[in-house]
Amino acid sequence: MRAPDCPGLSSTPVRPVASPLRLIHSNGRAMPAPFEVLGRGALPSAFAVTELATAAIGTAALALADYTRERFGVRLPAVAVDRRLASFWFGAALRPRGWQVPAVRDAVTGDYPTRDGWLRIHANAPHHRAAALAVLGCDGSHDAAARAISRRSGQELEDALVAAHACAAVMRSRHEWSRHQQGLAVAREPLFHIMRHEAHCKPQSTHPPASGRDRHAWPSATASTARPLAGLRVLDLTRVLAGPVATRFLAGYGATVLRIDPPWWSEPGMVPEVTPGKRCAMLDLRQDGHLAQLKALLKRADVLVHGLRADALARLGLGEQERQALHPGLVDVCLDAYGWTGPWRYRRGFDSLVQMSNGIAHAGMLHFGKDRPTPLPVQALDQATGYLMAAAALRGLTERLRTGAGVATRVSLARTGELLKSALGGDDTPLAPETDADLSSSIEATEWGPAQRLRPPCVVEGAGMHWDSAASALRSAAPEWPE
């Protein structure tokens, strides 16, 4: 298959990919044909991180191609992925011009030696930081935290931190995780847990009729093969990092994304990276009036993407069945850190913590001969899961076109980690360094200053990835859909 023309994608074809990542089933149907991979080289890792990046981005691109075919009655667009650009995107795509992205990490966040091993604390969020410091009984400096942690057992301290609603994980080996109750539970879970709901919309198999168009099936007459997601409304209740990656991908092909954050949330180091094409608003769901506003937004959304703890929406009266009742036909994509079953299904977690728990950081330490936890070179669990979430949303939209049914899909960082661990090694050729030719020629006028982004890592024939607005600050827009 010849790759569609795209300046910035390498002209060196490698091979088609037939990854298990692309097998997102919709009513028993697998994803379409494999995509073409271009470029050479890989990120340095004990695991096949570049292969994961290529496959995850390709999965999302294939899902978009299949949606385009179903939506517009055209042949399946060709898809290609540049593995080198995919690797770079798994790091960061934004390149500021004349300014710097704020630092991401709090001083307390990091890996610490304990009395009997290693423990990682994630304290970038103020409430997680406060909870951790309360357990440690020290001030907010890294050195003070290190002294307090060094005197304690890792498992005892992990238990105490988690009980206090802080975020922490001891370093386990792959073998230890494979025998752990949560490791066993995650290994039994599917990569995509798909739940179909009763059809409430009239299915549309090819072109929309001239009149009487079903709002759910055909939300906008402005959509085209060049901008296939135009007019689709995506309600984004996610934060660092997988969910925002998913909705950035959807916005890149025309979806209207409305991101909702609470008044206290801050992630200054990530917002410029993940908010192009999005409206960012504020709601405090602890207030009845704001919860009512969220329900009103949900009634008009085509897709809901959320990464709150597994029981959070249910405690607000918005469990899965309630969401479908509120908006029949909703495409619902849910993210969790440690999986949807097992004793840790409600545990707070982040990419770096999951890597500590499931043996990835330990395997990296052994692979590189180091004496401390060695994580992946990029936040690959977050990034890969984000593109899988985008694919799940698109497969849900395609299913709704075909059957009129709403679809809910669950994914988790831990399950993506199991997928990565099943693919040891890979191409060990170093990636060629980034050059100006890898950057988009357009200048993005973000709220922080001008910037460029890397060229898209994938191309779907006939549809360019670009954003209708520059990256914007959290809580900078009203919590409403544009008319």
From TrEMBL:
GO MF term set: transferase activity
Tree of life domain: Bacteria
Pfam families in alphabetical order: CoA_transf_3
Keyword Transferase: yes
Keyword list, A-Z: Transferase
Keyword Electron transport attributed: no
Region named Disordered: 202-222
Name of the protein in its database record: CoA transferase
